[in-house]
């Protein structure tokens, strides 16, 4: 059969190409079968699912050939799918490539071409009819026409599928306006929609992969790419769809996805060269590399150097914000395959030596020259960066990122390393060290962590550096002073370098009292008159919560107003109230005004400089060795030594005429007022403090009516009221004094006060307050009548009051009893009534039952309890014998020595 003649209207010589192909098939049916199988294999295996990838890759090549950035449009029109592009039109060489299975006019030596007409175009063979319309001429591939042409030359060919894209026919189709080439695929209606949807899904990735195309319109949607220096943005209908960071080298592009301002690591991806291959990758970023591939563009060519593609990855990581770089560092993991494993290792090798790790100082470091402190804070990093230059920035020092950096060769450092690396450092100011300790504090949760910082340098107040916190002290409150003093007698931390962390490292916090009680200070005072020492002591005492200094610090010498140096406890503050009550020749000086101005009155008073009276304190006294007046006498008054001593000193220096003012001063001072109630101070004041020559213990308060007439009244502060006389005498001398006052006829002592005084004297004797032998008996006694007598009789029972004349009767208390009478009689050397007087009741009287109504009534009226025997007289008379004189007297009651109670129904009286 004759071959078809060439069509003179065929611009690309498709007729010649068909004749050559058909002649080959005619001469070799095997060749026909091979071409059919090859085309089917390329469609179903080699280029499956790559229809739009290959068509848009060809469009990119056309744009590059035309020297433009092209755009593509994809749409469905009934049963046709259209893919149109701008760029160089179809050429005869292109047509020959389209009709060939194994050749292509695009070699890609300059890196600008990516499509494969002869191979990749076979992805369109899914359509029974394909038209390629171009401004330079158009062609079509038609499966039906191919079957007819094959039947004409090889009628016996029995193939299910013929190589329809080996034969092209001229077409009168034209590309849509605005486009240079258009591929039209005739497909079923449902397939057309699926293909357009697939194109929309692939468009964003294809815009990244194919730089020669910057816009793809799919149906009603427009996808565009915008390239900036470090970013690529793909938009959909004018709205940002995907954003990528990008780092470029000559043959590789690395891209990192960015969403909502955060770098997002990729999961599984594939190698792209430049379009997607089937090679799985597990890297956090996308790579688009210029690498040789197999003809189906799915696998690497055996000669490809995949490790070379790692170039540029560190630059991508460097573009990421510091706190997000870690997501782009591939962690050690099982690779998805051999290519992935090689590329991962190459990337990690590049990262290990490239300078992309942000340092704490802002410079970029390579991991193999980086020190990383896991979890370091911004504050700590800022401080350590001044001395540890290769320190990683906190943004890349979280524990996960630190582990990644260590895997790339970084050195991990911890607390012990910091302490070691800082050893010998001394140039930083104290504030720097304080901030360092504060920044380290959060890394020291327990004793084990604290031990790692055992050798951390600590600035001392004396300018030296201390190794660690152990053996170092902080005086409470000094760290709050703007200009703290130098404490020379104990190693202290520089207060402005202090942080609570140091206490967890072994530093000991002591109170001002503890610091001033150290024996090292006492020794320093003995060995030195250093002004620095004086300054430190007074500055410590000036702290708001400081207590009183130990007594031995009173020897610290201060400048006096006379220019000389005085022991502090021998100085008074200017205008001190104490100076107003002391004797004129007191041994005290006055502290210089400039000393008061510098340190303040409170600090000086705590040291012992006088304002008011000074208090001596000894927590465990063992002997009377505190230089207190009459201390030995007071000490001897104790059967056992006192447990503690609080005492006001210098009481013996008070001017006798100024004791009222001195008492006011003592009572108004919070330090001395409590001491007026007991101890040495009360003991001494009651005995030796005198007002108008009378000791305080022999004076009564103006409101003390229980002693009126007996003791002179005096007005004292309420706090000093306990210094005055109480109801009972203190000792024999006190008792003698009260008896003398009772005996003084010039004193108007009420009878009740006298009886109360007698009762108090009796109680004191019974209690052993003094011995009777130590009391001076008075010449006279105070009687029931309120008068004094030198012929007293001490009443020992109530009924004696009826027989002893009031001007002689002396009551030992109310009611009088024989025991009290005996004690008082012995004390005052006076007789009792029963010793000087005999009383006999008249015989007779009615003996009555003691429980009878009359007996009970009369007993009650007489102030007696029920009796064993009762005799009732109409008028009771008794015979009284005293002083050798006998007299009769009518009385209401009498009790005989044998206990018989005589009662009178009538009235009593003397006869």
Query: Which CATH top level class of the largest domain fits?
Result: Alpha Beta
Choose one word for the global shape. Answer: elongated
Structural class: alpha+beta
**Count of extended strands:** 45
CATH architecture classification name of the largest domain? 2-Layer Sandwich
**Mean pLDDT level:** 90
Note the main sheet: 13 strands, mixed
What is the domain total for the residues? Answer: 6
Please give the count of helices. 27
What Rg do the Cα atoms give? Answer: 61 Å
Uncertain segments are 107-112, 114-118
* Fraction in beta strands: 15-25%
CATH topology of the largest domain: Heat Shock Protein 90
Instruction: State the helicity in percent bands.
Output: 25-40%
What is the CA–CA distance across the termini? 195 Å
Describe the structure.
The chain has 911 residues and is of the alpha+beta class. The protein has six domains: 14-207, Heat Shock Protein 90 (2-Layer Sandwich); 228-354, no CATH class; 358-413, no CATH class; 421-602, no CATH class; 631-792 and 801-829, no CATH class; 842-910, no CATH class. 31% of the residues lie in helices and 20% in strands. The strands form 15 sheets. Strands 1, 2, 3, 4, 5, 6, 7, 8, 9, 10, 11, 12 and 15 form a 13-stranded mixed beta sheet that branches. Strand 22 (473-475), helix 15 (501-504) and strand 23 (508-510) form a beta-alpha-beta unit. The chain starts with 13 loop residues before the first helix and ends with a strand.
